[in-house]
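[Meeting: bench + compute handoff]

Bench side (C.D.) handed over the final construct sequence. Compute side (W.E.) agreed to return the predicted structure before the next meeting so the bench team could plan truncations. Sequence as handed over:
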Amino acid sequence: MVSFYIDAFFALMLFGVGLYGVTSKSDFLKIFFSLEMLLNAVILLLASAAYHFGFTRGLAVAYVIIVIATLEAAAGILIFILSSRMTGEIIPDNLDKAVKDE
């Protein structure tokens, strides 16, 4: 019982750090990794709750979310690489200015 509360507390802390990173950062990579932290916090909470309450479907859903997160990470890195090659900018606020200047 105690381990579920520790996992839930850690997931909420991880979610809070990720939410702070998404709302306060302007660098693309920092925002991207903060979104990954948000997703991992949800996965951790889902998997620990499923294990604690004995639901095996929750673990299967967590595995599907992990696979989707991996695909999302690959797509995000690809977008980052292409946008930095095309514009030379990595800050999302400056991407519009770099595209309009060309």
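W.E. noted at the follow-up: The two ends are 59 Å apart (CA to CA). C.D. will use this when planning the next construct.
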